[in-house]
Amino acid sequence: MKKQSLEEKLYTLKFNPDIYSHLNPDQNCCKKCTEKICTIICPAKVYEWNEEEQKLNVNFENCLECGACRISCPSKTLMWEYPKGTKGVTFKQG
Ligand code: SF4
Ligand code: SF4
């Protein structure tokens, strides 16, 4: 069986995004954060640092709910919760 790339695997997921973000970083902490590990560790590339606006953009609609960003945030100021009800990601292949 052909090994799938991460992009191919992500393509098999279904999303039912909420209108509200379930991922809420403390933007003041993000400004001071030197590592910005969330922008590196997230497999779905949810976080993007906007240097011009000095703001962390959060594309929460693409979140896989793996929790890696929550664990790795050095200041532990990233407010993280599961999307409500039937919102969020659905894994079709286990
Ligand atoms: S790692 Fe935490 S503090 Fe740093 S940019 Fe990401 S959410 Fe903000
Ligand atoms: S929970 Fe996982 S997929 Fe969602 S934003 Fe955090 S690292 Fe990315």
3D architecture notes:
The protein has 94 residues and is α+β, with helices and mostly antiparallel strands. It has a domain at 26-84: 2-Layer Sandwich (Alpha-Beta Plaits). It has 4 helices and 6 strands, in the order αββααββαββ. The protein has a two-stranded antiparallel sheet. The chain has a two-stranded antiparallel ribbon with strand order 2-5. Strands 3-4 form a two-stranded antiparallel sheet. The mean pLDDT is 93. One iron/sulfur cluster is lined by residues 23, 41-44, 46, 63-69.
Feature tags:
single chain, 94 residues, alpha+beta, Alpha-Beta Plaits, two-stranded antiparallel ribbon, 19% strand, globular
What is the topology?
Layout: H1 6-11, E1 14-16, E2 23-24, H2 27-32, H3 38-41, E3 47-50, E4 55-58, H4 68-72, E5 79-80, E6 88-90
Antiparallel strand pairs: 1-6, 2-5, 3-4
Low-pLDDT segments, ≥5 res: none
CA-based shape: globular
Q: H/E order of the elements?
A: HEEHHEEHEE
Give Rg in angstroms.
Answer: 14 Å
Largest sheet, in brief, is:
2 strands, antiparallel
Number of strands: 6
Strand proportion, as a percent range, falls in 15-25%
Précis, in short:
This protein has helices at residues 6-11, 27-32, 38-41, 68-72; strands spanning 14-16, 23-24, 47-50, 55-58, 79-80, 88-90. It has 94 residues and is an alpha+beta fold.
